[in-house]
Every structure is written in C-alpha cells, then in structure tokens.
Amino acid sequence: MAGSRDPLAAVAIGGYLAVSGLMPLFNKALFTLFPFPVTATVVQICAVAALLLLATSSSGGSGGDYGSTRTKARLLLLPSMFFAGNITLTNLGIHLTDVNVHILLRASELIWVVFLGAVSKQEPWPSRGLSAACAMLMLGVVLVSCGAGGEVGALAVGVTLLSALFSACHVITIRRAMITLMESARAEALVEGPAEQDDEEEVGLLSPKEYQEVRRSWDQQAANVDDGQRRRYPATEQDVKIPSGKVPELLMFKMGLSMIFLVPAALLEHSRLTDGTGDGVTAWAVLGGTSEDRAALVGGAYFGRSCVVPALALGVIFTMAFQGMMIAMATRIRALSIGFVAQCKVLP
After folding, report:
1. 198: pLDDT strictly greater than 70
2. DSSP 8-state assignment for residue 230
3. Which of 206, 219, 257, 330 counts the highest number of beta carbons within 10 A?
C-alpha cells in the first residue's frame, strides 16, 4: 500500500478504519430509532450529495480537470450502481442480523475482491498462499452462515452475503474508474504538450540540469503517444494518483448517480409498508411529524421526528466521512489493498 510515501493514502486508510468500526454499531442503533433502512439510506445519500454539490460549487473545484461532466458520469455510473446495491443490502443486513454476525459474514468481501480483481485483470491471479488464505476464510464464512442461519434466518444471511459481493464489485469498478480518469487526463496532457508559461514557471523552480531532465522525461513519455491521440502503455500505481481536491467532486458524482438506483428501492419499501398487511406506518409518516394521525405511531412503537432527524443528520456525517475515505483510497491504492483494509474492520 501507499504507506508513508503518500500522506493522503495514510490518512484515508486511517480514517476508513476508524469510521468503519463505528458504522455498523451506529446503523444498528439508527434502525432501532427508525426501522426503515432503505429510506434512511436514501435520505442520507441525498443529503450528502446536496452538501457536496454546494461545497464544490462554491469552491469552483480544485486539483485540475479530470474529464468532462459527461465522462465522469459515464465512468462512475457502474460503481454507483454497485454502491447503491451494497449500501442498501448492507443496511438491510444490519437491520435483520446481529452486528457481530453481520461483520463476520461480510468477511467474504475480500474473497470476491481477490477473484474479481484477477478476472478483470486489475490484479494478478492470487498466489498459493493467498488462495489458501481465501479458502480458509471461505470455510469460516460457511461455518458462520450455517450457525447463524437458524438464529437470524436464511434471508438475513443471504442479504448480508450478497452485500459483500456488491461491495467487492464496487471496489473493483471504482478503482477502475479512477485509473481511467487519470489515464485520460495524462494522455490529453501528453498530446497537448506543456504550455509556454508552465515552462517558465518550471525554470524558476528547477535548476537548469533538473529542468533538462524534466524535459527529457516529458519527451520520452510523449513518444509513447500513438498518432498523437492516446498512450498505449498501462498506468503504474504512481501515475494513478488523483489530487485530493478532486475527492469531494468525485464523491458527489457517485452519491448523485446512486440515487438513480436507491429511489426505486425506497419506493418499494414504502409500497410494502402500505399494502395493508402491516400497521401502515411509513418512514414519511415519521419524518413528516404526523404521529398524531397514526395514534402516536401505534402506541409509541415508533420514535418521533424529534429523535429520528438528529440521528439521520449524524448518519449523514458518518456516511460522508466513510465514503470520502473510500474514494480517497480508490484514487491512491490498489483494489486488493482496499479489500485488505476493509477486512480489518472485523478486528474491533
């Protein structure tokens, strides 16, 4: 992993581990107050997207241009779909299962990252040692699944295991999107060449000898551009490091695009609650403060808006921090490294 040579990667990994240990516990408590996991997800993601839109609009963006809006939307659409499936299934799993069981079942995410990374050619095929470790991990997941099936139900186990698959797909596709963005931006820079004013600035910063070395490196890279269009050689890990100033913008795109898939899921949850088989209390009845119209939300079985709204607001902060660290890691380290970091949330 990036380690000490990349401060942003170190901060992202540390922040991810710190928040990931709290997220399952917080979400379990949230769904006790507000037992509508899909709607809670939509509210939080929508709020995060809106806040990031305001932040990026006011700041005007930073860190250079990494593709047009259309390009970013196209590249982030597939990761957003997997993210929407992952967060929806994860929250449903937390709502249906015990937190400890949920975390243990989610350990299968690393197995999927190793397998899908190799199949997509983002990562090399695993060594014998890594394959043996994955096999032992899978055995543990199977044993936990068999033991938890009778305790929490097969549906809860299946939802949690499926969320691990979606999470791995999200890791693989978001890393691929970051690589593609960086490759495209760097290829365009090689085609266009350095601007004259940039040359003058570099002369002021570098000694004549250092400047000549920079120029030779630039010419060598430009020689790899085929027909003045796009380079044909693969990017290295050092190439694929999008500036930290682009993280809020990229996160905003991912959050906004995921709403395409999250809103229909919330509508399904709403229709299930109003089909006449339950007590008829929906998430919007709670958030709308209509407890008086529903007999104080069925005799106090549900918490009111004054309790739910602050909890959702805190969840927005957790979600923004957690997903921001994920995007930051995706811009700096390999998909397999992200999988190993995510695996560490089992430890707390």
Report:
1. no
2. E
3. 330
